[in-house]
Structure of histidine kinase:
Amino acid sequence: LELRSVPTRDSKDRITGRLWAVSDVTREREADRLKNEFVSIVSHELRTPLTSILGYTELLRTREFAPEERQQFITTVFNEAERLSQLVEDLLGMSRIEAGKVKLNRWVISLTNIVYELTTQLNTSLIKHRLLIDITGEIPPIYADRDKVKQIIFNLLTNAIKYSPNGGEIQLTIREAQKRDLPGDHPLGQWIVVSVRDEGIGMAPEDLPRIWERFYRVDNTNTRKIGGTGLGLSISRALVELHGGRIWVTSTLGRGSRFFFTLPVAGMKG
Ligand code: ADP
């Protein structure tokens, strides 16, 4: 709350009292703070890959290298360009969501195929990690937008990799949800629950409610070294909720996290 006061005066310029103005500026300040933080995060996220792309292309342009070395540099340039492209996609995705422009293209689809595609796509990032896929029992088809579902799982898997820098196991589980698997306020009906568990750095309880906010990043020595914009989870949450589902997390600092989300089974009533 901000209080401002000015003296009131009569026609002879004598002070007769004070006029007080009370205004709530916390919201404006918070918006300003987020905007500044946004500009600094985005600039940093743009600069890091760009510096490396410029550096390596300059080397490749001006010097001779052994074929293996050359190949290694080109791979780095490609990976960094991909990171830039991901950042731009996230920014566009976020603004489309906020403008209410995202429409789902929903079909009856199988999650198993999506998971298979994702694992082949992520193969090269899984150097230190072991990815376990646990799909037990008959998984009924879902009614969902294929690309969006892929994006949600991709976000959770890449976070699991990023935030377990020492490696470890990452487990992707898909189940038909039982009532006890769902949070108390979950909509009724028939749901599939997807979860991604890692053995990474985990999060403190006070950070858990905030990670869904756009641009929010847990601030500690571990996360500062790991790149990111704080957009992935807010995009994922918006996409899950467009499907009528929910997303939530359990985590222990220093031990790991487990993210869950639900998607509606095809033909579900309501
Ligand atoms: P980004 O990874 O780009 O920072 P996200 O929106 O995906 O953005 O995640 C927000 C924050 O939540 C991250 O910065 C990180 O602090 C925390 N976080 C997300 N996933 C995990 C995880 N698997 N383990 C630990 N912390 C995580």
The two ends are 44 Å apart (CA to CA). Residues 211 and 262 are 18 Å apart (CA to CA).
